[in-house]
Amino acid sequence: MNTKKTPLLEVNGLKKHFPLKGGMFGQKTGYVYAVDGVSFTIDKGETLSVVGESGCGKSTVGKAILRLFPITDGEVLLDGARIDNLSAADLRPMRRRVQVVFQDPFSSLNPRQRVRDVIAEPIVNFGLASGSELDDRVAQLMDKVRLPRDAMHRFPHEFSGGQRQRICIARALAPGSDLIICDEAVSALDVSVKAQIVNLLSDLQDELGLALLFISHDLAIVEHLTHRVAVMYLGKIVELADRSTLFATPHHPYTRALLSAVPVPDPTVKRQRIILKGDVPSPINPPSGCRFHTRCPYVHDRCRNEEPQLRDVGMGRKSACHLDVVPEVPAMSSAA
Fold first, then answer.
1. Does residue 318 lie within any of the structural domains?
2. What are the pLDDT digits (tens) for 287-300?
3. Is residue 14 part of a domain?
4. Considering its fold, how many domains does the chain have in total?
5. Structural domain harbouring 267
6. Nearest to 107 by CA among 56, 164, 174
7. Least packed by Cβ within 10 Å: which of 10, 138, 210, 315?
8. pTM for the complete prediction?
9. Is 323 inside any structural domain?
């Protein structure tokens, strides 16, 4: 008897290649390989964080799941049913279950709508309530995101950045969503406000059983919020592990370099900083073999010619590295 539970979200071999056009007639001259074969799952009530440098493709993953553009290849399943190949009409029920909170709360809110109308819009669009019941639901959502009910009659410009992001979270919760994609949802906020929003998301997850796909480059925030972490580099996942394992014993050399750059609040603690040489290669012409080999301190011939697959390397970790055991002190490191 198969007792394996179906994940809420399953992504298999997701690819998104953006065509490049040039010349007088706009011919196709190449592709930007923004996402090039990404796979992961998210269970109900779980947070998966996707981290990496700017341009690694993490935001494109979120937008592809939301079907903000068609994907090049791969599968996206919600509760075991494919949603990447659905028509706009068939996709509508999925849109109620999967919502998004964007990076900039001001630009993602209609400046001409009062907060009450912003939060009510998805409820009305999906035909979930009207009249006094609609007003009650909006008021309850204001309570959940810890904003005063009388604020629903104000406009977005009358709020601070953190308050606007609370409004965006309330709007994402409004249709009764199961999964919220947070695309750099706290990166534009002050440090103290970041902590408040992260704590709010954590409390809402406990209360409502929400699943979160948390896209971020802030590893300190990720460590506080997430259950599992997927590290991306140049369109691919290079390491996938639970939070405690990844932050305590990272395997992939790129993950180690990222974690070594996280500031430590204790000035007495010395950390070995890993300095990566060179720049991130262009996603238009990614390197052969391992995409990290041009900057890796442990590179060898196999890395340049054979692409490593994401595989189990022990302790519940998966890593896309040919090395079974990565040396502790890399050759390119220096004390910070």
1. yes
2. 999 999 999 988 99
3. no
4. 1
5. 250-336
6. 164
7. 315
8. 0.89
9. yes
